Amino acid sequence: MEKSVLRDPGFYVMVAIGLAAMLILPVVLDMFTIMQITQYVVLAVFALSLGYIWGFGGILSFGQAAFFGLGAYTFAVAAINIGETTIPLILAFAIPCLFGAALGYFIFYGRLSDVYLGVVTMVVTLLFWKLANHTAGPEYAIGAARLGGFNGIPSIPVMNIPGEPEAMLDPVQMFQVFMGFLIVVYIVLRLLIASDFGRVSIGIRENETRASLLGYDVRRHKLVVFAIGSGIAGLAGAMWATYQAFIDPNAFSMEMSAKALVWVMAGGVGTLVGPIIGVILLQWLTLKLGTMELLNSLAVLGAIMMVLVLALPKGIVPTLRKLIVDGWTLARRKKTGGKADE
Amino acid sequence: MSDWTNILETRGLTMQFGGVTAVDEVDFTLRDGELRCLLGPNGAGKSTFFKCLTGQLIPTRGTVTFKGQDMTGWNTHDIVNLGIGIKTQMPNVFDGVSVYENVRLSSRRKHMAAQAKELAEKTLERCGITHLAKREVGYLSHGQRQLVELAMVLAAEPALILLDEPAAGMTGEERDRLARLVLESARSAAVIVVEHDMVFIRQIAKFVTVFNRGAIFREAMIDEIMADREVQEIYLGKQANAASA
């Protein structure tokens, strides 16, 4: 946990798997499947945003969709007005990040406890959802972009190569670029978590009182973590908007926030791989259950969730990791005749 | 800042919770480099007093002055950064990470990474917990956690050390080491120790302040305090009442 990222083989394995998926999948899979997987990639970035602030900053947000939706709308409005997608993508990170910082200022400097943090983030999401739903008239437009209320914003530009608005990405290229985003977000978060800043965050997660008794400004620290998570959620929102070429107020829905929580919880809080695996597993299951039409997919998912929480309360990845480490220790102990250290 | 003789002074310090006055008009003075023991029955307001000193509670009335600087109402981290370290009554440690990391997070506050590492290792050794360095703190015994927290306090190199029941849960051997550590630390810092363990108090105490019902009840040398009938009564009276109840 505390050793340098650069000396952790797991880190390289994960990046290698990511790069391999990015390069090999388009060769072996058909385009429809690739487009399906692109969806997982976008949602994995979204899940990472919550996995980071929850698992490594101790901030349990029930409103991660607020930033996801804000990023999506920012991207849509900016892209329609500007006519290209590079600056909108940057804005889709920056604006939710700033909004997260502003909201975080009131939450953390106002010393709201965890429960109220949950309530405030949830209410902010609902406010956005309500607001976005009430922008149906033609008077609700930002520049050339009509917000469209519950009908959403159609015809959002597809991502283009920076500086060349005409060079739009095809679905396979989009998948590869998004995989690139996911890998970069993963690497940046891993480095951040291993940095001194990240170690203090973990300290704050473990014991806020002690962190402040060591002289760390807990409020400022949590604000920065929250803002970074908000920016990443916004980026995921932008990816979602350009992937679908469409966005509606459901980006702000409670379901989006809840799903993020479920993915992170199922995959494992306190890991970065966990949320990604949570997304892939649960989204794939939802899809399969949806096509079977045998049972209500939400009911089955709920049941699976309950089983996961009861059987693997720490999540899939931490449980697997423990099994492997225990197995390894046991094997070594047998080899050395019961003299394995630790 | 420079014009001070007492490292810590409180004037009229009062902390009320609703109708309860936990700390009542306390005028407390500590000289630089002094080692002071704070005694008093449970509920006398010792821990609340500590919390007022470190900004974990904002006093209802009165002032706290550290090195001539009035810091009443400051944020905890700002107070701590002036040079105050506290070991709380129930250990406040980072359970999910290793002992080493706990201590390093403390030493890293004021030092660059390389010095922080060195200081953390040195402090672990001083506290006799080097063999636990890699263990996760959440799995340690209460006494060991106390030592980890003490190491965190010492690694910050504070000018004033507050220790709230540091010997609780310790084995005899651990307690003796703790006493040596406290005496050793008192050579470079002012120290206030709250403790009930009389064997421990005997090992370290010189001048003692006795709290009762939120106020200072007596201040005298330890032998005088031990011989004081009224002090015995506030301690024993409580126990006698509890036994008859």
Automatic annotation (TrEMBL), chain A:
> What is the name of this protein?
Urea ABC transporter
Which residues span the membrane?
12-34, 40-60, 89-108, 115-132, 174-193, 223-241, 261-282, 294-312
Chief localisation class: membrane
**GO MF terms, alphabetically ordered:** branched-chain amino acid transmembrane transporter activity
Membrane topology value: Multi-pass membrane protein
**Originating species:** Paenirhodobacter ferrireducens
> Which PANTHER family does the UniProt record give?
ABC TRANSPORTER ATP-BINDING PROTEIN, HIGH-AFFINITY BRANCHED-CHAIN AMINO ACID TRANSPORT SYSTEM PERMEASE
Query: Entry's Pfam families?
Result: BPD_transp_2
Automatic annotation (TrEMBL), chain B:
Q: Which SMART domains match?
A: AAA (SM00382)
Q: Which GO terms describe its cellular component?
A: plasma membrane
Query: Where does the ABC transporter domain start and stop, copy by copy?
Result: 8-238
The protein's matches in PROSITE patterns, at most eight in alphabetical order, are given as:
ABC_TRANSPORTER_1, ABC_TRANSPORTER_2
Note the superkingdom of the native organism: Bacteria
Under the heading InterPro entries, the entry gives: AAA+_ATPase, ABC_AA/LPS_Transport, ABC_transporter-like_ATP-bd, ABC_transporter-like_CS, P-loop_NTPase
List keywords of the entry alphabetically: ATP-binding, Nucleotide-binding, Transport
Q: A GO molecular-function term, please? A: ATP binding
Decide whether keyword Transport is in the record: yes
Q: What is the name of this protein? A: ATP-binding cassette domain-containing protein
